[in-house]
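Sharing a chain and its predicted structure for anyone who wants a worked example. Both blocks are below, sequence first, tokens second.
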Amino acid sequence: AGRTGVVSVGGGLDLATVPRLRSVLGPVWDRSPPRVEVDMSAVTFADCFALTSLAEAQETLPVGSRLTLRDPSPIVTRVLTLTGLRAALELTTASEPPVPNARRAS
């Protein structure tokens, strides 16, 4: 505890790759870090299923933990905005603190 778990994602993030992402995130979540950052800077494609899965996964984190998307690529940011998921997830850059989502900020 007390450390941030970081997982880097690259390439396409879609229905076919979500199971692999979950298998990588699972052991990180099992350690119950206060924050899990998913580095999205190298994502070249993302569909709404994959990003919805991340938003839903956030709900399964242990109490006191949170999921943050680090350095989302332009395509990730676009899909988050178009789907309305931007309000459900926290975004950050490697050099800045997380920007809270709308739900947590209220």
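Comments welcome. DSSP finds four helices and four strands in the chain.
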